[in-house]
Amino acid sequence: MDRLTGTGVALVTPFDECLHIDEESLHRLVDHVIDGGVDFLVALGTTAETATLSGEEKAEVVRIVLDANRGRVPVIAGIGGNNTAEVIREIQTVPWLKKCQGILSITPCYNKPGQRGLYEHFKAIAAVSPLPLCLYNVPGRSGVNMEAATVVALSHDCPNIIAVKEASGRFDQATEILKFKRPDFAALSGEDDLLLPLMSLGFEGVISVIANVLPKAYATLVRSVLQGDFLTARKIHLERYELCKALFAEGNPAGIKAALHAAGIIRYNLLRLPLTPVSDSLYEKMKVLIGSR
């Protein structure tokens, strides 16, 4: 995989009534998003509640996703953390990674490294990775912002770092990345509500949460922008605004799991602690919004 563009979906991890991985629901979800036209899948991201999964469960999630995918689209796996040596060890040892096509790696949380530390962290990971890397900058979760200059430097210094999932919400930062990055390095939106404006600047796609439940709409939005059809893209953006806002009103992935349950795609609206399901009032609102999709 030389480039990472288009619509990716950050898959949830459905759980059954015993809070074990719900293979039936995950299989149905993979079919749903691929049938909806997404370009690639992301397993074990933030939306997957990966922080609550054991090593064995991570392997199970990837196995289910790969089995359900049947080679139809690329599969990207999340491998990241705040211990660089442990991230490297995982990349070098987990057997399931060999069947994936790329790695999504988040900025380290809690440690709050400076820009030099972030650069050295990802440079060290890139040096051992057998697969292309997509950086994931999400300061709202990790507590540290990877500045545009750091992303740009990594794009030029590490050929196998091929993209960034940018979720800082800063348009000045997005603009600087676009202006100075390596030409074949892709910038992807990490925020569904900012997808259209970021693509209007030159972003080439998204790793989306809402595409779990509305893959066709968001794959169409992305393709429309890439083809220069902003009228179609704007129409989808405005029509889905209320649902997109509702999905994040009480946190992610609580919102998207509620929407998937309301749509009948996953069997149970359950999360592992410390996360909890959305309120009854938001769930009822979600049912109305899903019904009008």
Count of extended strands:
8
What is the CATH homology-level superfamily? Aldolase class I
Report the C-alpha radius of gyration, rounded: 18 Å
The tally of structural domains comes to 1
Low-confidence segments: none
Helix content: 40-55%
Order of secondary-structure elements: EHEHEHEHEHHEHEHEHHHHH
Rounded average pLDDT: 97
Give the CATH architecture.
Alpha-Beta Barrel
CATH topology: TIM Barrel
What do you see in this structure?
The chain has 13 helices and eight strands. The chain is an alpha/beta fold and about 290 residues long. Strand 3, helix 3 (about 85-95) and strand 4 (about 100-105) form a beta-alpha-beta unit. The radius of gyration is 18 Å and the shape is globular. The chain has helices at about 25-35, 55-70, 85-95, 115-130, 140, 150-155, 170-180, 195-200, 215-225, 230-240, 240-245, 255-260, 280-290; strands spanning about 5-10, 40-45, 75-80, 100-105, 135, 160-165, 185-190, 205-210. It has one domain (about 5-235): TIM Barrel, CATH 3.20.20.
List key phrases describing it.
single chain, 293 residues, alpha/beta, TIM Barrel, eight-stranded parallel β-sheet, 45% helix, globular
Brief description of this entry?
This protein is of the alpha/beta class and 293 residues long.
Q: What is the topology?
A:
Blueprint: E1 6-10, H1 23-35, E2 40-43, H2 55-69, E3 75-78, H3 84-93, E4 102-106, H4 115-128, E5 133-137, H5 139-142, H6 148-157, E6 161-166, H7 171-180, E7 186-189, H8 195-201, E8 205-208, H9 215-226, H10 230-239, H11 241-247, H12 254-262, H13 280-291
Parallel strand pairs: 1-2, 1-8, 2-3, 3-4, 4-5, 5-6, 6-7
